[in-house]
């Protein structure tokens, strides 16, 4: 069913085969249904500091670190770099609005089931997120038992250049000890897809947000699916293609 997409990927990158030994997951919008709360918090915080920043802007910028998001908007709207103090104050306010939304975002349906299936298949798993949101990062063990640790997570605190730069995924490759044709990425954000493709990785986009499928495809996603549940149901079809 996915033979054509995988064949195109292998030919384009001159890889011998797709041999999935590791799977790298984004967090917000992939493992957690957290993007509506993030989006609302960003819109409120940015407006308070005089930025025009819409829900669509949030989804298009998803994947960047908080500092990069603020700095990009400062350059676009005011023609200069944001100062460290400005980035700190805006991100602190955004974090407050996010946490004030009430209650921890829930795991995506079938996220834990998919992770457990991959674990049973003896494939390595890593988290690759631009988030530095402590409230979410602290929930990983409770929501996804015995899957994530400091040894297989890459967060905003681990990189100097966040998505769309390939650095987060290149670091994940190093941590997992695998080559590009031995890893797969599950993303939901255009910039996350861009980062994964820049790192030379086969990338599945799950469109859990407000964007059109075409946006994710245009940013390079090899496969676009509608949900983690769909990925769970089609997982074995994908990973058994050679």
Describe the protein.
With 242 residues, this protein is of the alpha/beta class. It has helices at 3-13, 35-48, 55-61, 66-78, 84-100, 111-120, 134-137, 140-143, 167-176, 190-198, 213-218, 228-239, and strands spanning 22-25, 124-128, 153-154, 183-187, 202-206, 223-225. A 6-stranded parallel beta sheet has the order 3-2-1-4-5-6, sandwiched between helices. It contains 12 helices and 6 strands. 48% of the residues lie in helices and 10% in strands. Strand 5, helix 11 and strand 6 (223-225) form a beta-alpha-beta unit. It has 2 domains: 3-33 and 110-239, HAD superfamily/HAD-like (Rossmann fold, 3-Layer(aba) Sandwich), CATH 3.40.50.1000; 35-100, DNA polymerase, domain 1.
Characteristic terms for this protein:
single chain, alpha/beta, Rossmann fold, DNA polymerase, domain 1, 6-stranded parallel β-sheet
């Amino acid at each position: 069913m996915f033979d054509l997409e995988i064949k195109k990927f292998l030919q384009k990158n001159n890889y011998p085969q797709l041999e999935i030994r590791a799977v790298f997951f984004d967090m917000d919008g992939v493992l957690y249904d957290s993007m509506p709360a993030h989006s609302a918090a960003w819109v409120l915080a940015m407006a308070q500091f005089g930025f025009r920043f819409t829900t669509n802007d949030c989804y298009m910028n998803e994947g960047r670190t908080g500092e990069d998001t603020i700095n990009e908007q400062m350059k676009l709207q005011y023609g200069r770099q944001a100062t460290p103090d400005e980035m700190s104050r805006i991100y602190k306010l955004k974090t407050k609005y996010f946490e004030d939304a009430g209650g921890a975002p829930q795991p995506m349906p079938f996220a834990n089931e998919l992770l457990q299936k991959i674990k049973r298949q003896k494939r390595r798993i890593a988290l690759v997120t631009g988030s530095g949101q402590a409230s979410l990062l602290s929930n990983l063990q409770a929501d996804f038992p015995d899957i994530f640790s400091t040894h297989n997570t890459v967060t905003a605190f681990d990189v100097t250049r966040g998505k769309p730069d390939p650095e987060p995924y290149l670091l994940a490759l190093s941590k997992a000890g695998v080559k590009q044709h031995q890893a797969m990425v599950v993303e939901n954000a255009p910039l996350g897809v861009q980062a994964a493709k820049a790192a030379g990785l086969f990338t599945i986009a799950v469109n859990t947000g407000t964007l059109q499928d075409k946006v994710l495809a245009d940013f390079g996603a090899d496969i676009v699916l509608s949900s983690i549940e769909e990925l769970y149901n089609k997982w074995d079809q994908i990973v058994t293609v050679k």
